[in-house]
Amino acid sequence: MSTPIIEFRNVSKWYGEGDNKTEVLSNINLKIEEGEFLAIVGFTGSGKTTLVNMMTGLVSPSEGEVLYRGEPITGPAPERGIIFQNYSLLPWFTVYQNVALAVNEIYPDWPKDKRDEHIRKFIEMVNLTPASEKRPKELSGGMKQRTSIARVLATDPDLLLMDEPLGALDALTRGNLQEEILKIWSANRRTAVLITNDVDEGIFMADRIIPLEPGEKSGLGPEYKIELARPRNKKALNTDPHFKKVRTSILNYLVQLGEAAKLERNQDLALPDLEPIQPGTRSFGWLRRAS
Ligand SMILES: Nc1ncnc2c1ncn2[C@@H]1O[C@H](COP(=O)(O)OP(=O)(O)OP(=O)(O)O)[C@@H](O)[C@H]1O
């Protein structure tokens, strides 16, 4: 078998020391294969961002190691691109300039014309050509997220990391962007890792879903393979027996985790409504810890 693009070997992560020590992740073992689309689904505060940041190289493990193509990750690198929930665009730059900034950094030796063509291609790919001279404050949330997607994709990362990239968007925009990300991902088949709190989003997009346990010392749950042909059709999925089966299994597992967390820590987790829903039209807000 070929070397995984990412491998976690017995990884634990804690912040602080002594009385202030918070162990966020415990004993994570995970292999991500080249070209796969993996979704990690988890409760708020369970360590999803910590997990993805160990792949970007922004956070290092306290114990164990995280390897990229067999080599320990020592810091961020352009081959591992990340899309965040909060867009992180420069407010005084236009859509074009925000994408150009990344492209100029990655391809400084390209002639200006070639860079310009490349920037425009990615802006077009996310349907933002008419808005390319607009600044972030003139854009909707969906358009801002499209810009940040174009910016990352234009740097052609081998590994596309997404930390709840669509969490702040309304259901319709979210659904459209899920499809656009999938279309772009299918075109060049890079490896993708999506962190989400929406089980349906995970099933619609990924080849494999792994739940992250709630609370401190979170570990990974069982993996669920999503054996649905691509391109996937949201409407058809709703009545697909495999979709229904895998969705029920994941939800049951998460409900059981939520119940266990409640008993263990006397912490209330709102329970999900298990009525079948139209995939992608509702975010699983119940995965957020009840206040
Ligand atoms: N730099 C840090 N220093 C101290 N504690 C931290 C740090 N980063 C994260 N934590 C703590 O680690 C835990 C997990 O945080 P993390 O952001 O990884 O979880 P998450 O699942 O992404 O949460 P959310 O869904 O809210 O984004 C939280 O309790 C958080 O307070």
Automatic annotation (TrEMBL):
InterPro entries: AAA+_ATPase, ABC_transporter-like_ATP-bd, ABC_transporter_ATP-bind, P-loop_NTPase. Keywords: ATP-binding, Nucleotide-binding, Transport. Pfam families: ABC_tran. One of its GO terms (molecular function) is ATP hydrolysis activity. Residues 6-239 form the ABC transporter domain. The keyword Nucleotide-binding applies. Coiled coil: none annotated. This is Nitrate/nitrite transport system ATP-binding protein. It comes from Neolewinella agarilytica. The lineage of its organism: Bacteria, Pseudomonadati, Bacteroidota, Saprospiria, Saprospirales.
